[in-house]
Amino acid sequence: MDRRSEYYSAASRLTYVAHFFGLTALILILIWLLHYRGGLNYESNNPDLVFNVHPFLMFFSLIFLGGEAMMAYKTVRATHGVRKSVHMLVHLLAIVLAIVGISAAFKYHDMIYKEDVYSLHSWIGITTICMFCLQLSPHQHESRLLNFTGLAILFFGIFVDLSVALGYYTFYSGY
């Protein structure tokens, strides 16, 4: 067994764990939105149902699909060109879904007559989307800087989620 096949074997075991946790989080978000928050519907006249599209699509696109794209680039057993194509297509799907998720938040704010982009969450989120779009630039070449950018985007996505949790905590705890 050569060194490359050992890498694939080890990587595939770790990706099973990552897929498990990603799918578990996705299922928990869907249970939360469908059972406890009443569902999600972008075309609804109910602003809460429109807003529920935002957390689902932002998690699904930037965190789940972003992680899947990173794992696909390193673990798919195919030629380098095929791995890059799969990686790029999953990222492209993620950015399209993220844009729909952001538009759901703007639509919600329009429906309840609330200002847009007023919180730390909003600004970190917009920064994350901008970094994501810059990564898809056709003038980028494979480099350590681009790999760092992909990892930074994933961490920014996690920070955006944590900023929501911090906002809820401070709002409901009276600070």
TrEMBL record:
SMART domains, A to Z: B561
Name this polypeptide is given: Transmembrane ascorbate ferrireductase 3
Cofactor(s) needed for function: heme b
Species, as recorded: Quercus suber
Main localization category: membrane
UniProt keyword Iron, yes or no: yes
InterPro entries: CYB561/CYBRD1-like (IPR043205), Cyt_b561/ferric_Rdtase_TM (IPR006593)
Domain of life of the native organism: Eukaryota
Domain Cytochrome b561, residue spans: 17-175
Membrane-topology descriptor: Multi-pass membrane protein
